[in-house]
User: What shape does this take?
Amino acid sequence: MKKNFFISLFIIFILFSQNIFSENITISGSTKNNEKLISNVSIFFIDKNDNIFETKSDKTGKFSISLPKNNYSINIKKDFFRISEENLKNYNFKINSSLDIILEKSLSFLDGFVVDKNEKPIPNAKITIKSNNFSSILFSDNSGKFSTYLKPGIFTVIVSKYGYSTTGFIRKIKENSSVDNEKVVLNNFNFFLKGTVTDGIKSIKNIEVSLHNKFSKKIDSTTTDKDGIFYFYKIPLEDSFFLLINNKNYKKYKSKPLDFKEKNKNKIIFLEKL
Assistant: This one.
């Protein structure tokens, strides 16, 4: 009897814990225009780190999506519709919630494409569209293209992507008109790396440090200063790099791959004496 009581108590605790500490919550609702349900609307939930979660309303205009608890902005894609300004806000989803997404008819249209200086398409570039009353976010597709329906007015369009310089433009879109085939060029920016070489007790000066890409090709080399500090400037945008030190007084050092999608502000290198 006592044993069964504790087993029941344990099961209740597990169920309670799963409910309280669950990573995901469910957002469900409808897509509508003037109380009329609209089907097959692509819905994008964009978190504060620009991760995109996508769903689509069904043939009855209903949708449901499982999301990590987080802050989100929302946008939609449906021919001849734009998302209403009342839905263009930040949502803090912590619990299962219902949400109606209101659509407004529109014939005012903006489309374009994002490329680099070599005319290569840039996918997943972030396009932020701002006016006096609202701000909305969308992303370029795998071909670098983007498109959206808008309320007529004057808009500031900001285009950005990690590894590239941010750019933008201002356009006026009139009623039932469009801005077509807007070309946006993003320029690569170069990365910067600072590091310190030490033997674990003191910094080591006059140590040559070389930088290599993933194919082991040497990109650049430098020498530590009197404080054991080295710098690499204008590192080109590539997948990964590694650092190499060959010095007759120390064991050979080769770093793990450095992914510049993450911040590498100060790399500490420990050398062992031979």
Remarks:
- The chain has one helix and 23 strands.
- The domain at 23-105 is CATH 2.60.40.1120 (Immunoglobulin-like).
- The chain has a mean pLDDT of 88.
- The CA atoms of residues 10 and 142 lie 49 Å apart.
